[in-house]
């Protein structure tokens, strides 16, 4: 065991206890007796800071001191006003883009070290930091050709800090798996490794530039969201330059009161943009909290900060669409089948019983305003059901699930009665119509036939004619399948051309 990481974990726990941010005294009335006793014992060790401010304010200050990984956790919590309350979420919102910046001279030195020339040659105008986050900060600048840009510079020494935090996170995940058996199905170690990998990618601005360029192309196809263009002449390992993004910061509470702002339409566009990215293209912005979003009245959205990009395989996208569509149409048998086909639920369980359990979760959602739903209770019920059926967390869905929680929270803040399912409906139905239609099935069958023919062609190139004949005799099913698929593919193409 990494002793330094273990002691860092103990120090983090101690810091939370000292601030009364681990199990705040304000929760005593709703805690079970045993937990309440433990909380009161821990509170004996709390310090003077435990009496300063509300629980969210104390937690925000503590997470800020604990580093980048803790700040990321706070950013997710701050989007869930529907679960934790508006005041608690608001108190955590300062973690999004209001951290103390490092000096502008240090930023200039970092840029000069990366490009090997004076800042003035690249950016004749280079201003003070306009936003500071856990890993980097952004400066407004003007390039030599007159373009107004945003220059993002990594914090000095942040790589060492993230490395130390990552080792601590792994220790915490191992302890959770060892000491909390019910949490094992959530795959704490897989989750920790996913978070660590995403943080490592965030520490190379070249990866972020590539992600920004790719997502900008994806967003432009639908128009529900857009992204500023990458200025490649200003990109290096620790520096990223983007064209300046106009708009109003969604993290500023005053933005929601701007005249002419269609808050419901923005909430709808946010949900649809995220789902279109994930379902249609298999690549999505995986850090869509308010600090990374700007709005343009009446309903335009501009996204920034592309350090975390999520990806889904075609198979995962298909299962995800099937599950969402099943909930949208209240076809719980279809949802259950998709879970079993994807391997999310072990095969020894009864699909019909699982469909019944899903109905218990889904039915209370439909036909009711979001403000009438006890979302915390709904999530608790879902947790109980998935535990009953031995569902395990899928590593490939960790970022998707985290982003979905964040996006839903932002949408609810914009429009408290926002209907997530109604917003998702056109995107999911479009995907189903395109990917699961008879035409799509025929195209898929034709593709399988072409792949089989290519395999036979490669075999023919590698072996003699006699060997090919022998192999064909051994595998007649493959030959007949390839021939049939080729015929079906030809018929499909002719129908497309002349029908």
Quick structural overview:
Helices cover 59% and strands 9% of the residues.
Task: Describe, in plain words, how this protein is organized in 3D.
The structure is a single chain. With 499 residues, this protein is an alpha+beta fold. The chain folds into 4 domains: 3-95, no CATH class; 159-200; 247-421, no CATH class; 438-498. It contains 21 helices and 9 strands. The strands form 3 sheets. It has a 4-stranded antiparallel sheet. A hairpin with a 3-residue loop joins strand 7 (293-296) and strand 8 (300-303). Helix 11 packs across helix 12 (263-281). The longest helix has 25 residues, at 438-462.
Question: Keyphrases for this structure?
Answer:
499 residues; 4 domains; three-stranded antiparallel sheet; four-stranded antiparallel sheet; alpha+beta
Distance between the termini: 67 Å
Order of helices and strands: HHHHHHHHEEEHHHEEHEEEEHHHHHHHHH
Task: Tell me, briefly, the overall form.
Answer: globular
Q: Helical region count? A: 21
Low-confidence stretches: 472-476, 478-483, 485-499
Mean pLDDT over all positions: 81
Instruction: Kindly name the structural category.
Output: alpha+beta
The helicity comes to 55-70%
Oligomer state of the chains in this structure: single chain
What is the strand arrangement across the widest sheet? 1-2-3-4
Give the C-alpha Rg: 26 Å
Structural domains: how many: 4
- In what range is the share of β-strand residues? 5-15%
Beta-strand segment tally: 9
